Amino acid sequence: MSQVIALAGKGGTGKTTTAALLIRYLTETGRTPILAVDADPNANLNELLGLQVEVTLGEIKDELRSSVPDNMARGDFIEMRLNEAIIETDDFDLLVMGQPEGPGCYCAAHSFLSQALEKLLKNYAYVITDNEAGMEHLSRMNLRKINKLLIVSDASSRGVMTAGRIAELIKPLQLDVKEIWLLVNRAPQEIPEVLDDYVKQVCHEKGMTFLGYLKESPEIFEAEINRQSLLELPDNTPVIKEAGQLFEKLLKGA
């Protein structure tokens, strides 16, 4: 069975960076094969992984309206284009949701992603999904079962509060989420006691397991400014070591 790890959180917390670091750690520890899914309409996970995107699911969804050949069954066309959309590497594959070009509700594209994922899951040990900012992706249910929901917050009370609100959505939306974790990203070297107390309080009240603090990293900042893949950072980079310890805790479970 595939282990599905979904990332959530408000915009600007570093979800995509966290997803890229997690994919790197999974490959380095031999937890393959991996399917990375960029489910954010503003897709940029591929940049942090050093990959070029040729076809997205949003584009395929638009093609279904008018581009299916007369001599080809709709199902065969979808399977063919889906295989073309998967970006393959030696260690992991990437599938990008993208933004549909035509008019219409974006919810339909999320439904298409859900159907596509359902067919793909059996081929991978881990599925890592980088979702759009906020909570909308949960209500659209682009994943039916999530083993671990990793909510990423910045080191602010507002960010932690938003993380707690996301955790609250699980029950009313009837999502099948086994574990809910909180990661406080871009944290200062010295954690203020008032922040640490608030993090523990929110985790206790909202049923989240606190994963830990990932410190602010000048190496990450420089890599992103230079549009450099995070896979190219040296193994001895402090944030790489720190993230690895946190991810091992996540993978072993609460």
TrEMBL record:
GO biological-process terms attached to the record: negative regulation of cell division
Domain CobQ/CobB/MinD/ParA nucleotide binding: 5-228
Entry GO terms, CC: cytoplasmic side of plasma membrane; cytosol
Classification via InterPro entries: CobQ/CobB/MinD/ParA_Nub-bd_dom, CooC, P-loop_NTPase, ParA/MinD_ATPase
Molecular function terms, GO-annotated: ATP binding; ATP hydrolysis activity
Annotated SUPFAM superfamilies: P-loop containing nucleoside triphosphate hydrolases
PANTHER family xrefs: CARBON-MONOXIDE DEHYDROGENASE ACCESSORY PROTEIN, SEPTUM SITE-DETERMINING PROTEIN MIND HOMOLOG, CHLOROPLASTIC-RELATED
Name of the protein in its database record: Cobyrinic acid ac-diamide synthase
